[in-house]
Amino acid sequence: MFQKKKKQLMSLTAAGNTPPDMDVSSEKATEDIDKSGKDDDAGQAEKISPGFHEDGVNMEDGGVLREDNRDMEEDKFFQQVSQEEVYRSIDEEINKAKKTHPVAKKIKSEKKDIVLPLILNVTIIVLISLGLLYYLLATKGRDKQDSLSSSVAGVEAEVIRELQRRSEEEVEQQKIKLEDARQRLEILKQEKDFFLQNQEEILKQKEMELDEAYRKSLEEAKSRIAASGVSDVNEEFEREKERLFEELVESKNRAQQEMEEIKRNYETELSLNEDELDREVKTYTFQLNEVEQRFQEEQAKLKEAEEKVKSITLQQQEFQGFQKQLDSVYDKALGYFSKGDYERGIEELNTLLPVLESARKTGLGDESGLRIEEKLVKNMLYLAEREQNRVDLDQIGREVYEAAQALEKEGKLEEALSRYFTVYTIGSDSAYKNRSMSRARAIMERIYEERTESSILKIERRADSIFRKAMNHKNRGEYDQAVKSLEEILTRYPESSKRYRALDELLGISNLITEQKTARDKKDSDRKLNRQALQIMNKAESLYKSGDFSDALDMYEEVVRKYKDSVYAGKALEEIRNINNQMREVKVTTTVSLGGEGSVTGVVVQVLPGNNVLINLGSVDEVKIGDELQVLRKGESGVEIIGSLKIYSAGPKTAKGKIVYYEEDIKIGDIVIFSQTN
After folding, report:
1. What is the predicted pLDDT for the residue at 469?
2. What does the alpha-carbon distance between residue 206 and residue 260 come to, in Å, rounded to a whole number?
3. Among residues 568, 547, 567, which one has the least CA distance to residue 557?
4. For residue 664, what is the DSSP state?
5. 473 and which of 196, 351, 481, 569 could share a cystine (Cβ 3.0–4.6 Å)?
């Protein structure tokens, strides 16, 4: 009913001030109103509020709301994968890329044995070459890392630019939605104002139409009564007039009520739509503010990322300059060392230490890499300086030997004797040492023959006192002091009778020192050997306890093969025998046999490398990875167990196993069955 009246009112609104023709009777007027409403039903309903359905639902707004839902989903996506998470992930990748794996660089100390200068020169050059090679490899790795860091920073900037582009699009979309909502709200307000302004005029027009219909009805009634021939025309006319007037009043009241009801409902409907549009405008405004705020934040982060890219690029340029400087110094030092000019080579290397220290303070390059670089330079400096200051003891020994010969010719026997002992002490050339000792013996004989009896007794007492002192040092293990005392006897009192014992003791202590050093070296070697063997024994024991006999056997065999001089070799051999004995005791289960009581699990069809075999299972598919099977062979004396294997790959028809134990070489055609240990 309301919709019908609403259509009637809108038809009047659309028609302006031109009301439809009305009959004198109220029924005819009502029919005219209904007819007018039906004619303009579809068009006028839309003119009430464009975009609204009869039930008050905004059809156009529904599309907007669906767009809002998609926008809200996009917002949720951006909330789920926030920019902070993107930045944090990128920073983590940069930190990983900047990490380096330090290379353990060990420079073994040189033995105290005398080495020829030529070998040492070559060693220095090789060491510096290795250092340069290591440095080039390290700098190549750092170049890759810096390049990766720059790439990551560039990716970060691209990600932020993409987010910024999306934010700009989102801002524009929100602005379009907001402007559209505002326009629709403005149209709704204009429509409301138009409706309210024209309600009184519409009502007046309706009353005028009713009055005009009333007037026409009176005229028609008057003519009809006059023509009817009634006796009292006036009285009949008054009654008809009164009736028509009542109908007029009733029609006006009804029109007034309908107008007011339509107005109330329409105002309520417009108010709801207006509230909905107000909320929509507020929502879009709020979302627009949020998007603009994110847009500003992304602009700031983009600027920060661009600054980071510039910083990394600058660091790369600085580091490349630093690398070129190191390369130049290494090349110059290597050239000087190859020519034997250690002084200038050392000067070049010394220039690197402050450069490396400055690089560490400024954060140029990796801290760990710089420390390794500095340690390498210091070790090269140490070896170069030692080579520069090295004394060729063999050459000195030869020169001292020649000087001793000259002193001996001049008759300066005691001085010559001292020189010969010096050659024996410092030289490593056995020929010169033997000749020096021979000449020393001869000189001591000559000196002894030339001494008087009284002086000989005095010398004997002194030599005997020093000898006892030397023996005390020897007994306490103070070999350095003992050698010093014995050398004193040989140099100061070579004519004493203790000279031979002193010489023998000196040689004996020298051999003892050598033996002790050899024993210490052997002890250290044995300790290292036992430690390595113990590690393998522990692994083998763990494998044995877990039932992996094959790998355990391999480990024990490795101990016996590689560490046969260790204290664990015997135990490893015993464990090998123990495992073999256990494997021999493996028995066939009662559920499977070869005499018709059961079925064979499979047969070996191929022998694979690495003590592995391929088994054809036939129709049996119960074999699983980890199962231990026995290998049997039919001979003249019957079926014999020749080995066992452990399954490491199982299929429906075939399986692969590793040979754990065997007494004979396993061949194609050997039988394989389930087994269990007693």
Report:
1. 92
2. 13
3. 568
4. S
5. 481
